[in-house]
Amino acid sequence: MEQFDVVIVGAGLSGIGAACHLRRLCPGRTFVLLEARAAIGGTWDLFRYSGVRSDSDMCTLGYQFKPWRGAKAIADGPAILAYVEETARENDITRHIRFGHRAASASWSSAEARWKVEVERADGGGPVRFGCAMLLLCGGYYRYDRGHLVALAGAEDFQGTIVHPQFWPHDVDYAGKRVVVIGSGATAMTLVPALARSAAHVTVVQRSPTYVVSWPDVDPIAKRLKRYLPARLAYALTRWKNIRFDVAFYRRTRTHPEVVKADLIGLVRQKLGPDCDVATHFTPRYGPWDQRLCLIPNDDLFNAIMAGTASVVTDRIQRFTTTGLRLASGTDIPTDIIVTATGLEIQVLNGMALTVDGRPVNLPDTVLYKGMMFNDVPNLVQTFGYINASWTLRADLTAEFPCRLLNRMAARGLRQATPRIGAPDPDMERPPWIEGFSAGYVQRALPFMPKQGDRGPWRHTQDYAKDKAMIRGAPIEDGVLELSNPPPGGACCMAA
Predict the structure, then answer these.
(1) Are strands 337-340 and 178-182 parallel, antiparallel or unpaired?
(2) Are 214 and 296 in contact (CB under 8 A)?
């Protein structure tokens, strides 16, 4: 069994970032990244559908420590993948990655103050084990091997092609074809304008509308700052500007939701004109940021609709037919290709089973500590980004914390860090993992997720400013995170 100070699960945006923070803040620590697939990049290597891009600006989706130098703030998938790969090369991370290694389970021993990680190898070479003092779960939030599929009658009758964006075939040919995209989320809104460039026509079939916000893919202020300032300073200022704007906008959706809703719908009406039934197709039944907003660059979706190459139908699907879809209204939509952009399936703990001193960890029975650890589970940190802002804002904060924790434990000669629900907190309320967010992929996952508390540091705030104060500003030893377990004989294996 190979031994490391830190095992990082996943070599995508979060895992590469965590490794970079570890090298910077904990020089000398040994670490390995376990990646189930054959390449780094995670989401940005897996998703290959037409038009794949970010739905957050790259000055906040990019790492804090590595300026995004691309011209476009809303970047395409290949450019983001190249950014992650470049980050790994520049920080000498790639040689630490074990590809084709899927972490299946992990068990903690307090006697040894170590995790033992059981790993399945893609090459069929049999399971292997890795030992570590700290385990970082950075494998993202959804299953890579399965998307969310909605059961619809008659799928086997359809004589055309059915494609799920998560498993986009490299040879799918939609030029001159009629295409139906089922869904109204970010993936659908990305796909439609890309497909409409060469398809005969693209029809979005949605059960209910989503908020759609157009934004320029080039940030004019960032462009000007880059012209006159050093790259790092320009990046830092743009990042600060965008964070401030996003936080302020989100808070306004909480305090004045009807005003924000009216503003957002009004902007859509301006783009699509009086002939579009905005009330039916672009006016959601929920408030702004009760689900993620769909960001579209440079009006591309609206332009496709105005050009007549794309259209939106709001109805329920009754069944597939041999030639397309039949809707609940009785309307038939003939098509050659159906794209099921019906969402992701959240995966808890990166699909791993955990035990602590022989006791299985049942995640719904746990409470989140600072949005990244679980009560009574030692030396384990999970990265889960924001649902209302760029993923990497939270991932960067999360990656810094175990580095500080390792250094603090080494300074004190201790090996174990365990969040404990202490005397003041046993009767605190335990609301769901995320509140006030109605997206289907989250609601389906809530029964399997940890709870949060009704007070800090047990709150899962979804607020960058509050999280920054809680994670960077608060002391490691806060009366909740228990540092313990000195080594026998006094020689600390956590020492750098």
Answers:
(1) parallel
(2) yes
Whether the domain at 2-145+346-490 and the domain at 155-340 fall into the same CATH topology: yes
Pairwise CA distance, residues 166 & 161, whole Å = 15
Do 370 and 461 touch, CB atoms closer than 8 A?
no
**Which of the four pLDDT bands, split at 50, 70 and 90, describes residue 423?**
low
pLDDT digits (tens, 9 = 90+) for 99-115: 999 999 999 999 999 99
pTM: 0.94
Better pLDDT: 221 or 427: 221
Confidence of residue 495 (pLDDT cuts 50, 70, 90): very low
Which CATH class, in words, describes the domain spanning 2-145+346-490?
alpha beta
Task: Name residues whose C-beta falls within 8 Å of residue 338's C-beta, 6 or more positions apart in sequence.
Answer: 158, 160, 161, 162, 163, 179, 180, 182, 320, 324, 325
CB atoms within 10 A of CB 34: 24
* pLDDT at residue 492 is higher than 60: no
Beta bridge partners of residue 220, listed in sequence order: none
> Which fold does the domain 155-340 belong to in CATH?
FAD/NAD(P)-binding domain (3.50.50)
How far apart are alpha carbons 195 and 193 in whole angstroms? 6
Q: 243 with 61: CB under 8 angstroms?
A: no
Which residues share a beta bridge with 494? none
Per residue in 124-169, pLDDT (tens digit) is 888 899 999 999 999 999 999 888 888 889 999 999 999 999 999 9
Is residue 367 within 8 Å of 375, Cβ to Cβ?
yes
Q: Give the separation between CA 327 and CA 310, rounded to whole angstroms.
A: 18
The closest of 406, 369, 371, 417 to 391, measured between CA atoms, is: 371
The residue extents of the domains of the chain are 2-145+346-490, 155-340
